[in-house]
Structures are given as C-alpha cells and as structure tokens.
C-alpha cells in the first residue's frame, strides 16, 4: 500500500527509540543505533518527498476509519519538505551528538528521547487532525523538557522552569482553542473544519477561536510579546540540543500558524493587521536583543526571534508570493539556525568559552575550520548568492505589491542588524587577539579528542553547510518548491479533495 | 508507614489488585476499562505494597527495574499497530481480529495487544516516577 | 448545569492564572494543574452534555438504541488528562530539582539565565 510510505519516517524514529531503550545501559550501542537510524530515516523521508513531488498529496486514514471520523495523516508538499528537513537535521545532529554528548548525560536516555523528539516533529508536520496536532505538540515538549534538563546544571534547570511554564501555558491555550472550535463545529479533521467553519452562524466566535490559536502558537513560535522563554533557555543545554531546538521547535509553531491561518480560518483585516504588527515588533525586539548579547548561543537565540518575524511577515501579507518567501525562509532558517548552534558548540570545544569578549584569534589558529564556520554565518546574513538572500526577494516583492512598506522597512532593518551582529561576531571571535582562557575541570577540548571524534563534529557542520550552500546556489529549485507549496497553501481545495474524497 | 494491619493486608491485596487490573485490561475493548486504567490499578498495587513494606521490599519483589517494562510495552504496541500494515496491507493501527473467540478472554484482536502494550508502559512509567520521587524525598 | 459548569471553568481559569503569577514554584505547579483541569472541563462542556446516555452499545445489539452522548470530547479529555499526568509528574520533579539547585522557591531569584555573560 503506497500510502503507508507517509508513516515510514515517523514509525522508523519510534522504532529506533524503542531499540535504543532496550540498550538503556549501553550508551556506546545507543550512539551507533542513533546515527544509523537517522540515516535510514533520512532515506525514508527522501522516498516520501519523491512520492509527494511526483504524485501529489498523500493521505492515510489511520485505523482505516474514514475521514472526517478517524485521524487523517496528510503529506502535502509543505509537510513532506519539512519532514525531509527534520531528518536532514536529525542525521547531522545525531552524528554531532554521538561525539559531543558525554556518557554522563547519555545514560539518562538522551538518544531514545532524541528520536522521540524527531518522531514528534515528524508527526506534527504530517497530521491532518487538529487534536492530533496537539498530541504531537505534547510529544515534542515532553521530549524537549527531558533533553533540556538532562545534566541538571543550575542554568539548565532555571531555564527549564521558564521554558516549561510558558510551553505548558501554550498547550493549555491551544487546547482551549480546540475546545471552542469543537463546540462550534463538532469536528476535528482540519479539512472538514474548513468546510464546517464557513457554516457557523456566529462568525465572531470563530474569530475568537482564531485569536486563541494565534496566542497558543505565538508562544510556541516565540513572537513578540510571548518570546521570553526562548532566550532564557536555548543557550543552557549542550549545543546539539540547542541546535535541534533552534532549528525546529519554533518552526513547528510557525508551521502550525501557517496551516491554521491558510487552511482553517478566512483571513480578516483585523487578523492581517495584528500579524503585521506582531511581525514588525518581533523583528525589532529580536534584532535589538541580538545587538547587545555577549554569549554566542544567546545571540543566536535572539536572531531566531528576529527571523521568526520575517516568516510571520510573509504570512501576514497573505499572497502567493509572500507565502513563497515565508516557506523559502523557513527552509533556509531550519538548516542554518541549527548549524549556527552547532558552530557555537564547536567554538566552545575549540576555545572553552561562549563569551565573545574572551574569544578571539580563531582565524589565525584554525584558518581552514574558520572558512567552514563562515558558511553558515554568511548564509544567515544572506550575502548573495548564499541562502538567506533569495527568500527576501520574494518577501520584499510581495510587500511592494501589497503596499506594506512598513514590513519592507523592517525586513531590511532586520537583515541589516543581522549583518551587523554577524560582522561583530566575526571580528570579535575570529579576528581579534585572543585572551588566554582557562578550561573548566574535565572539559574535553577539540584538540584532546581522537581523530574520529574530531571528524564527526566537523562532518555534522559541513553536512549542514553543504545543504545551506545548495539552498543558496540551487535557489532555483528551492524557489520552485516554495512557490509550489505557496500555491497549495493559497488553493486549499487541493488539500480538501485529497483528504475528504479519497475512496 | 508502619501499621500491622496495612502490612498484613497488602500481602493479600497485591495479587488481588493485580488480578483485577488484568480483568480491567481484558474487558477494555467494549466496556469501560482498558490498558491505561488497568496499568494504573496495577501500579497502585505496587505502590500500596511499597507504603506498607517499604520501597526496598517492593523493589526486591519486582526484581527488575520497572523502567524496563517501557521498551517492552512500546514494542508490543508498535508491533500490533504494524501488523495490519505488513500482513494485510491495511492502514496503520487497523483492527484485525481472530475468527474464533478464545475461552475466558473472548474475541482477541490487535487492539488487545495494543492495550497490553499500553498496560506495560503505564506500569513502567508510573512506578518509575513514584519510585524516583519517593527515593529522593 | 451548563451555567454552573461555565462558572466553575471561569473560576478554574482565573485561579489558575492567579496562581501562575505568584512567585512561588509550588503555586506555579498548582496554577498549571488548575488551568489544565479548566481546559478539560471546557472541552466537556462545549462538546454538549447529554445526561445518562453513555456511548456504549448494549449487549446483544449492533447499534445504539437511542440518543447517546458524544464520545469524542470524552476521548479528548482522557487523552489530555493522560498527557497532563505525565507533564505534572515531570513538573513536580523539576521544581524539586530546581529548589535543590537554586536553593530558593522564589521565581524572581532564578535569574542565572538572564545574566549578561
């Protein structure tokens, strides 16, 4: 049955997690299982992507209960792309963490939980049922709590309290929104919801439900007044964990927002204005926050917020071109942000500090590695022809056609500040004379590692750098992909047909 | 808690409660009950035993760490979901049933195996949580 | 009944948020629990309440004999309860750990992560 291919990446991650759980005590075997499992899962998600690319939307009714009664799994091009990206990150981070996660951490179940997190992400991207989306969100946050707190250092625990509180609050708000929506329509299937929502008499209640969804997803995706948990927690865990968080967790929120506001709800002027306002303020606060940071990982955390604003800006403009920009930016951002956190962790391995003031002279001591680290940094800035440049063209074009000059101004402002921040980071960390930094006790620096371990760290970064180079130089392909996704998003009829009329 | 009555009673309650939890598990498909509730009842049996006789005794009784039930439970549930996919080419989690009812248990299908998996996972998780909390107290 | 439940849900949400805004870690957890219960009851209420008609097909029958309560909200609540059970267990262990590490249960003093370093 060809439709089952939809579930393979998800089920395979579950399988890997179970197998890794069986080897609870032996972290060496877990490392091997994790790397091998991620590579196979990547292969499976490439198969899924191929299938969707050539044959269109795939749906699967789990338990053979027909839509809209059962839980439907849907892979349209957006879902398949995101699943593919999740698994690319999965491979890179599994390879990176197979070396960087010390056994004291790994023995608390790092690797099984890592795969459960990837399973949750995959599930959230392919589900076609709003309550099932809630369940996947919970799978994601439970696994991320564990990953965040493994190790139990003071900053980690304190960051986790903040992360935990706001994410649970987001889940409760999301659940409330589902309750309201279910009360209004009596269905949970997203395709069916679109049809039923249009029939609801009291449309102002629908608007309220939409706003509650917006707040819930807003916390998850760290938009302007709701982002404070992110810079408080993302720099505390090991770099590999930060990388998967920074790359994917906020993007799940953005994905959910895109899904809900293109498929479920008709857009109103109020909502558009709200999205524009939020986008502008998110870019502004993320950019200003990034300007003053000294800790590299924290600086990247603020840049995440800043660039979430770009995606929300595209969503706010609500045209095919704008969606193309949003999706392209998301594809670029997932790869590059994850890589940046890996780079931060790598710099820490080399020099033993995250502080920009203390760091320095990296270019002098490691010129070749510096050139590798340069790729994600400059991709983020978007120096043409690197990957960050292309989506902004679509975003600004969309801004010109819809006459949202405020958004254009802030997108340019955000890019400019990103350039400034990265230039500052480059001159501080790579060019400046370095101070001698004393290593912490039992700190395992890059130079004291075996050749094989050194190779795996560099390989993970190089893999993601290669992908971001491909996004930059093969921008034509990604642009095609994004515009196809944008077309699917603006014509939800395709999605409805695929879900409700199969068999 | 050191009371003779509870200590004596817990010795009898443990098997009764475990039997009851299996009963709840088995009736779960058509009537109220099921793996989750059954698992909770089973873990309550052990928690009660731990209350009366101390954590160490319960651990000795269990022999294995309850956390080891988790991968087994997950694996059983996972396989029961996969079975229709690979045996009959039906979607994931479709219920498949044996033709003849078994004595005592009644109709057996993949749903029962799924519930058994849930049962084991719930016991494993609940006991791990409770043991962890009471150990560090 | 519906009116009563509506008030109850309102009180649960309000007191949950009030508790979350306190500075104590323990009150934070209590707030989360109250909010979660409020949300579960909200699903129950908005799924329409049908009394005395459990959605169980009687024995020796193939279909429902008369009207029955919508089973979906109940399934949703059960799922949500199971999830919040896991989350709350985790939360309690987390705050215990946080209390041990930070040696305070005042959230305002947990500001290591905001230090400029």
TrEMBL record, chain A:
It comes from the Bacteria. One of its GO terms (cellular component) is plasma membrane. One of its GO terms (biological process) is ATP synthesis coupled electron transport. Its main location: membrane. The chain crosses the membrane at residues 6-24, 31-49, 69-96, 108-127, 133-151, 163-184, 204-228, 240-262, 274-292, 299-321, 327-348, 369-390, 405-426, 455-473. Belongs to the CPA3 antiporters (TC 2.A.63) subunit D family. This is Na+/H+ antiporter subunit D. The lineage of its organism: Bacteria, Pseudomonadati, Bacteroidota, Flavobacteriia, Flavobacteriales.
TrEMBL record, chain B:
It comes from the Bacteria. The keyword Ion transport does not apply. One of its GO terms (cellular component) is plasma membrane. InterPro entries: CPA3_antiporter_subunitB (IPR050622), MnhB (IPR007182). Its main location: membrane. Keywords: Cell membrane, Membrane, Transmembrane, Transmembrane helix. Pfam families: MnhB (PF04039). Residues 5-128 form the Na+/H+ antiporter MnhB subunit-related protein domain. The keyword Protein transport does not apply. It is found in: Cell membrane. It is a multi-pass membrane protein. The chain crosses the membrane at residues 12-30, 36-55, 67-88, 108-133. Belongs to the CPA3 antiporters (TC 2.A.63) subunit B family. This is Na+/H+ antiporter subunit B. It comes from Flavobacterium tibetense.
Automatic annotation (TrEMBL), chain C:
The keyword Nucleotide-binding does not apply. Its main location: membrane. It is a multi-pass membrane protein. InterPro entries: CPA3_antiporter_subunitC, NUOK/Mnh_C1-like. One of its GO terms (cellular component) is plasma membrane. Pfam families: Oxidored_q2. The chain crosses the membrane at residues 6-21, 28-49, 75-95. It comes from the Bacteria. Keywords: Cell membrane, Membrane, Transmembrane, Transmembrane helix. It is found in: Cell membrane. Belongs to the CPA3 antiporters (TC 2.A.63) subunit C family. This is Na+/H+ antiporter subunit C. It comes from Flavobacterium tibetense.
């Amino acid at each position: 049955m060809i439709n089952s291919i939809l579930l393979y990446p998800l089920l395979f991650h579950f399988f890997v997690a179970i197998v890794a759980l069986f080897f609870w005590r032996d972290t060496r075997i877990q490392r091997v299982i994790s790397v091998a499992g991620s590579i196979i899962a990547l292969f499976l998600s490439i198969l899924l992507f191929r299938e969707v690319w050539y044959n269109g939307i795939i749906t699967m009714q789990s338990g053979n209960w027909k839509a809209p009664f059962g839980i439907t799994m849907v892979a349209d091009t957006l879902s398949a792309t995101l699943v593919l990206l999740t698994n690319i990150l999965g491979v890179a981070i599994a390879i990176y963490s197979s070396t960087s996660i010390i056994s004291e951490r790994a023995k608390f179940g790092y690797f099984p939980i890592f795969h459960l997190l990837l399973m949750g992400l995959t599930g959230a991207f392919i589900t076609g049922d709003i309550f099932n989306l809630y369940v996947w969100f919970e799978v994601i946050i439970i696994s991320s709590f564990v990953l965040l707190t493994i190790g139990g250092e003071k900053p980690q625990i304190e960051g986790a309290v903040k992360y935990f509180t706001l994410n649970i609050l987001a889940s409760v708000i999301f659940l409330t929104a589902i309750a309201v929506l279910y009360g209004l329509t009596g269905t949970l299937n997203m395709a069916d919801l679109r049809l039923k929502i249009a029939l609801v008499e009291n449309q102002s209640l629908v608007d309220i439900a939409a706003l509650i969804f917006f707040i819930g997803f807003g916390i998850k995706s760290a938009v302007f007044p709701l982002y404070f948990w992110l810079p408080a927690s993302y720099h505390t865990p090991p770099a590999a964990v930060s990388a998967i968080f920074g790359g994917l967790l906020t993007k799940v929120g953005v994905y959910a927002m895109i899904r809900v506001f293109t498929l479920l709800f008709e857009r109103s002027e109020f909502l558009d204005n709200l999205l524009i306002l939020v986008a502008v303020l998110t870019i502004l606060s993320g950019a200003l926050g990034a300007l003053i940071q000294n800790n590299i990982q924290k600086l990247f955390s603020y840049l995440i917020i800043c660039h979430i604003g770009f995606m929300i800006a595209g969503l706010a403009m609500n045209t095919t071109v704008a969606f193309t920009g949003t999706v392209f930016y998301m594809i670029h951002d997932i790869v590059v942000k994850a890589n940046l956190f890996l780079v931060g962790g790598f710099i820490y391995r080399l020099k033993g500090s995250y502080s920009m003031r203390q760091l320095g002279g990296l270019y002098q001591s490691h010129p070749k590695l510096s050139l590798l680290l340069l790729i994600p940094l400059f991709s983020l800035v978007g120096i043409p022809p690197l990957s960050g440049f292309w989506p902004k063209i679509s975003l600004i074009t969309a801004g010109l056609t819809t006459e949202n000059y405020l958004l254009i101004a802030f997108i340019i402002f955000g890019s400019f500040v990103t350039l400034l921040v990265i230039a500052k980071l480059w001159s501080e960390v790579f060019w400046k004379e370095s101070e001698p930094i004393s290593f912490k006790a039992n700190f395992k620096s890059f130079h004291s590692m075996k050749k094989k371990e050194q190779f795996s760290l560099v390989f993970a970064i190089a893999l993601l750098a290669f992908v971001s180079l491909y996004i930059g130089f093969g921008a034509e392909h990604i642009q095609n992909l994004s515009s196809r996704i944008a077309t699917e998003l603006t014509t939800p009829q395709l999605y409805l047909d695929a879900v409700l009329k199969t068999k | 808690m050191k009371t003779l009555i509870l200590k004596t009673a817990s010795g009898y309650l443990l098997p009764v409660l475990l039997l009851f939890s299996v009963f709840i598990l088995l009736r779960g498909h058509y009537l109220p009950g099921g793996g989750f509730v059954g698992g909770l009842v089973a873990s309550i049996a052990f928690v009660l035993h731990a209350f009366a006789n101390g954590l160490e005794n319960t651990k000795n009784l269990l022999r294995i760490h309850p956390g080891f039930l988790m991968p087994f439970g997950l694996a059983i549930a996972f396989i029961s979901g996969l079975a229709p996919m690979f045996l009959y080419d039906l979607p994931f989690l479709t219920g498949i049933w044996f033709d003849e009812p078994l004595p005592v248990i009644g109709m057996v299908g993949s749903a029962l195996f799924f519930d058994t998996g849930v049962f084991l996972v719930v016991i494993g998780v609940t006991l791990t949580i409770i043991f962890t909390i009471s150990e560090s107290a | 009944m519906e009116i009563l439940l509506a008030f109850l849900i309102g009180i649960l949400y309000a007191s949950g948020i009030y508790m979350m805004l306190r500075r104590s870690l323990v009150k934070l957890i209590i707030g989360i629990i109250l909010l979660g219960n409020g949300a579960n009851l909200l699903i129950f209420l908005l799924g329409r309440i049908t009394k005395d008609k459990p959605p169980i097909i009687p024995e020796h029958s193939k279909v429902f004999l008369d009207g029955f309560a919508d089973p979906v909200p109940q399934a949703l609540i059960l799922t949500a309860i199971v999830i919040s059970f896991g989350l709350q267990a985790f939360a309690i262990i987390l705050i215990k750990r946080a209390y041990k590490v930070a040696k305070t249960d005042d959230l305002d003093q947990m500001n290591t992560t905001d230090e400029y370093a």
